[in-house]
Amino acid sequence: MTSQDLLKELRGGSIDVAVEQLEHLDQYPLEALEGLARTLGGIAATMFHQGALARIEDFWALSSADLEAFLGSKGDFDNPSCLAKAQDQRRHSLMRWEPFVYSTVMAHGRKLQGEAISPGVGAGAVRYVEGLPASATPFPRMILVAPNPIPQLAPLLWGAAGLVTFGGSEAAHLVEVARSVGVPTVIGCDEEIMRALIGDGSGLVLAAVNGDRGVVSVHTS
Q1: What span, in angstroms and rounded, lies between the C-alpha atoms of 180 and 174?
Q2: What is the pLDDT tens value at each position of the chain, 221 positions in all?
Q3: CA gap 129, 146 in Å, rounded
């Protein structure tokens, strides 16, 4: 697979194919990656302080054309439609970065073994829902974690990157919904360990789900 083919997969193709290719890429020196991260972080902070970004995190949603427009001072950042466009791009960017997040979390996170229920792989920020999701708001490419696969959680699966539960069975209605919308699912994960990793929800917790192998990896900040 050429670099162009890999980028195509990362920008809306198959995450499974992209992850497989990423696992075989040569490792770059840590110093080089840290230097690149500092440079990009500096640009993101500058754009945020100048009003070009609503949040620093939105930097990762920018296309190369948007970044060139800012560096060339050609961006109309006071235009409301520009912000709306950035928000839409952010949703799509989550899909582009997901293979990288998956590979990193699988390599460096705490792995838990469960039962493979719905195939596929996915990665994202964890959203833990203890009971009924009355006040739970879904966000794109989240990993939904719950004690049991109750039917009331079905609306939260829209756009989710994965589903993880402590109990339940493959006959559960929520599992059937997850299969139908293509959400990788693993059930039967160790509740005590998962709760300890998630904590009180104040920090960023990332998870990677492999619905083919029944493996969940969790990385805390």
Answers
A1: 10
A2: 555 555 455 544 565 666 666 666 666 566 766 776 778 788 888 878 877 776 676 676 666 666 777 777 544 555 555 555 555 555 555 556 788 888 889 989 999 999 999 999 999 889 998 877 666 666 778 899 999 999 999 988 988 899 999 999 988 999 999 999 999 999 999 999 999 998 876 678 899 999 999 999 999 86
A3: 5
At 82, which amino acid appears?
A: C
- What does the alpha-carbon distance between residue 144 and residue 165 come to, in Å, rounded to a whole number? 8
Q: Rounded to the nearest 10 degrees, how much is the dihedral formed by the CA atoms of 52, 57, 60, 65?
A: -10
Q: What is the pTM of this model?
A: 0.64
Alpha carbons 41 and 22: distance in angstroms, whole number: 23
Q: Are 90 and 61 in contact (CB under 8 A)?
A: yes
Under 8 Å between Cβ of 127 and 138: yes
Spell out the CATH class of 110-220.
alpha beta
Annotate 34-103 with three-state secondary structure: HHHHHHHHHHHHHHHHCCCCCCHHHHHHCCHHHHHHHHCCCCCCCCHHHHHHHHHHHHHHHHHHHHHHHH
Q: Residue ranges of the domains in the chain? A: 3-106, 110-220
Is residue 148 within 8 Å of residue 174, measured between CB atoms?
Answer: no
